[in-house]
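Side project, low priority. Logging it here so it doesn't get lost.
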Amino acid sequence: MPAALFYPKGGEVFEAIQDVQIRYLTHFMSPFTGGDTAQICKGERVIISKPGRDKPLAYYCFPIESDKIEDRIIPISEKDDPAYTGFSLSIDTLLLNTHFKQLELTPIKYLKGDATKPDDNRTKLIVHICNDVGGWGKGFVLAISKRWKQPETEYRNWYKSKEAEQTDTVQFERLENRDRFSSEKKFELGNVQFVKATEDIWIANMIAQRDIKPDKDGVPPIHYSYVAECVERVMQFAKRQNASVHMPRIGCGLAGGQWTEIEEIINVGLIAHEIETTVYDF
């Protein structure tokens, strides 16, 4: 028993040091939820969500290898329900202190510079946000097109065709838990087109912006849930290519997003997966 409990602030990554019994929640289209108890195995990792109050009795968490854990603990009957939208874990604060260890991860690196000119000897993945109406003409996309024509050309072709084919220079990442009823190759929110610009640079055209201006209620075009989905695809691609990730402060210009929200998505989607990530302020 620890002398004093440690209360995470949110965003930390913990690894189980032994098998541990926890609770899980299954999420369905509102207003339905479900859940039960399950086991997190030694060595499995979770990301801590921001608590709703100081010194909570338990924390909501999301597993790093979510597909693997989902296959093990979520009943097939629930996963195959079209209303199923995912799951989360609930871990007692005491168990976090006694059955898990916090991992020290390399944080986002912030640099003054041009995100289209990353200084890295490895394969590099440059990430930016696109809209879902085929517009490519303002913001960071101009810097991309100034250096390489292919990312814009492939994005416009993707928009016109509505669903693209994978080639040696245009690739997509499938999320099994999200693409069962759709396709990662469709031109739609939440999907990412990876375009090869040079031998060691790929551009990620992430569709996470609905339209190009706020709606009638003043809601900005950025959609954080789609940013998170795109970042998950980026994480998979970066791991497969052994690539570092580079970006400006995505979603915070014309898209109208808040960096505090985007930063949390990056921490959960990339940093927690040990993807080296650099953000550039020009």
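Brief comment: DSSP finds seven helices and 14 strands in the chain.
Revisit when time allows.
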